[in-house]
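Q: What would this chain look like folded?
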Amino acid sequence: MRIWTAATLGLFMAACGGGAATTPNPLPTPAATPQPQPTPTPSPTPSACPDGSCGNQNAVVRAQLRLYLLMDETGKLVEPTPDPVRQVVETPIPVGYTIRLDVTGKDANGDETDGRGQIQWFYSGQDLIHTNMRTAWQRDIIVAKPGVWSVYVVFDGVGSNDLNFTFVAK
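A: My prediction, written as structure tokens:
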């Protein structure tokens, strides 16, 4: 009877929360591991200034005139564009072709500048060409007749280099 009384008493104590019965300890919850946050991808920076001058209006100290494009009589781009060597385009250009000329102003730091944008164009042999103004900085010159032709500009009072061309009949 003692065994039975001890067993009953043990069960009774366990039911009341007392005695030798123990509740198991729960396993500790592991600490959450922080997930790395993705770094936002920087958006591409647009080119500093597509037109070159970035709105720079410093005074022009140097003006550079260049042959920008050459197109045949159908308007198709001729590549490579002839390279002016010592301001002379060594390859004669046929009548009917179009020359796109471009002038660039540089400031005292060597940066492109719009200056005041006062550009005067000077041509020899005006009867050899037809001129279309694209912008103050660009001209399309259509070759009308064979001959020797030259051009230069004055950009805000600063003279550019001369370009010299020979036009030939096709």
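The mean pLDDT is 82.
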